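Notes from hallway chat w/ T.B., transcribed later so I don't forget. T.B. wanted the structure written out for a chain they're using in a teaching module, and asked if we could keep both sequence and structure tokens in one place. Agreed to drop them here.
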Amino acid sequence: MADSNPVFDHASPVGFIGAGKLGSSLGKAMAEHGYNVAFVSRRESEAAVEAAAGIHGATPTTDSQRVASECAIVFITTSDGAISDVAGRLNWSAASAVIHCSGATPVSALSPAVESNVAIGGWHPLQTFPSNHMPGQFEGITVAIESESADLMVWLETLAADLNASSFKLKASDRAAYHASAVMACGLIAGLAGLAAEMWTTFGMTREDGLSALAPLVSQTADQIRRLGVPGAITGPYVRGDVATVRAHLAATSGVGADVGAGYAALALAHLPIAREQGNISIEDYATIETLLRAASQQR
């Protein structure tokens, strides 16, 4: 679309529709960095008040149309499935830009706003938000941004920089791969930690015991990834070519359940070529381990 919108700046009134964990955290961070966060909406009044409580100057409301009518820039931070519905049922004639914060949803979900000559875009922080008003969650992270409006793109880049984050331009066609990568590095890792902790129940401990014991290991691994990268941060039997240990792991995980055993094997098989890059595994051991993992990953 043509850039018929005014230049965006810190004074432009900003509003959030569906300000949950991400929306409240982003609103708080923006307000702390001088942005004019004017409205925060949730469907329930108590939730709206809670979301706005940590955002200086923000007015809570249950009326999403009020946000669309009184704010120049509106963030839709609802669940992914609700973005298109919100974009389609509100009157955007008073807004200058509508932005969603979804990693997987195409910006085209906001296309109803374009009919009102409104710029649309995406601003997805590569971060996890387990609770409301989380401080420091944008420091040093990466933000994926997308917009066909040059003016809005500059504003989105500036927002990331103001929050001490870096940004890159994400193509619509790359969203699925990008978001799958994010889920692998976040949700699936958290789930994997849960499965690892479940293993502790096989020797008389609880999952909570396992999580408590494994948490420092997970944190140290994340630090090593930052410091050494990959494959440098990968340790264990797959970089050593320890066939006996791999056999023992497959027996133990499959003993918990067929899906757990197959999942462990599939994950190990997928990362085996990366582990091999360390150069510590022989051709023979690699072939043996690959065969073991491939067979185990297919057992259900």
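Follow-up for T.B.: Confidence is low (pLDDT under 50) at residues 1-5. Might be a good example for the class.
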